[in-house]
Design a protein that fits this description.
The complex is a heterodimer. Chain A is mainly α. Chain A is built from 6 helices and no strands. Chain A has one domain. In chain A, helix 4 runs antiparallel to helix 5. In chain B, helix 1 packs across helix 8, helix 2 packs parallel to helix 6 and helix 6 packs across helix 7. Chain B is globular. Classes of the chains: A mainly alpha, B mainly alpha.
């Protein structure tokens, strides 16, 4: 979403160990049409897309969709982790250009 | 910058604050403290950056607060009102450059081109540019609160205190004048 080739090329060792292969990772760009993704995957990806582009426009329904698959504590932890991943990547990108 | 009419909390958190997180709060606290301790930038620039982030993310808590350090350094509500249209305001060029950097970082960071990079290096040292970036990251933590609409703004000094983290380097918070009058 941030159009960063370096970020797209990186894979989390934990995710890879859990079974995330390159084919699956690359399908994220077309997540709405990918039949391999579960309802939970879609809920998390929909939230991620809105969180990264315009957080004030996240709807209550998008939170409800997360809560259908996780308890509130895990949802909160996910959002916190998402913040860290997103903003760390934004810092990386601008620092490479500005310094 | 944007608004939504839906402000009801969407998740039950016992004590929503900037450290409501349960799993990562220690790491985030270390980062927050380091970002707030950094002092290569003057308090006025830091406050402009913080409030631009608040505006972009529509954070009601951050918009309702001012740092005493910035107010003591001359930050006024007249200055705050210029942030949303900063490019056509009479804010100093150095402030406009910092705010352009905030906008690029929060929208499409890969669009940070040579022109803005050169402007940044003209007005700010490498350490100050790094501090700008970490300030934007720190003052975007409210995205977590906003996404869940647990960014309930304080109405008085007692509620302001609730939002204090007690971290080294944290500014002293005061209620924005428009909140005191409501």
């Amino acid at each position: 979403m941030l159009h960063d080739p370096a970020g797209c090329a990186w894979r989390s060792p934990k995710a890879a160990a859990a079974g995330l292969d390159d084919e699956c990772a690359l399908s994220v760009a077309d997540w709405r049409d990918d039949a391999r993704l579960s309802a939970a995957d879609r809920a998390y990806l929909a939230f991620t897309e809105q969180f990264v582009t315009s957080v004030p426009h996240i709807s209550p329904d998008e939170i409800e969709a997360l809560l259908e698959h996780s308890d509130p504590e895990r949802v909160y932890a996910f959002i916190e982790a998402l913040y860290l991943m997103e903003m760390t990547e934004r810092v990386d990108i601008v620092m490479r250009a500005a310094l | 910058m944007t608004n939504t009419t839906e402000y009801s909390p969407r998740l039950t958190i016992e004590e929503p604050t900037f450290r409501a997180g349960l799993h990562l709060h220690a790491s985030i606290d270390h980062f927050q403290a380091a970002a707030m301790r950094a002092s290569r930038l003057d308090p006025l620039t830091t406050e402009l950056v913080r409030l631009r982030c608040a505006e972009y993310h529509d954070c009601r808590v951050c918009s309702s607060l001012r740092t005493k350090e910035a107010v003591d350094a001359g930050f006024t509500e007249e200055i705050a009102e210029k942030i949303s249209q900063y490019d056509t305001s009479d804010l100093p060029v150095s402030a406009k450059v910092a705010l352009r950097f905030v906008d690029v970082m929060l929208t499409r960071p890969t669009a940070l081109g040579d022109a803005l990079s050169e402007d940044l290096r003209s007005y700010y040292s490498a350490e100050q540019i790094a501090e700008l970036a970490f300030d934007v990251m720190k003052w975007s933590l409210q995205k977590v609160l906003v996404s869940l609409r647990i960014d309930v703004p304080p109405n008085d000094d007692a509620e302001v205190a609730k939002w204090s983290l007690g971290l080294p380097g944290e500014p002293h918070w005061v209620l924005a004048p428009h909140m005191s009058q409501s």
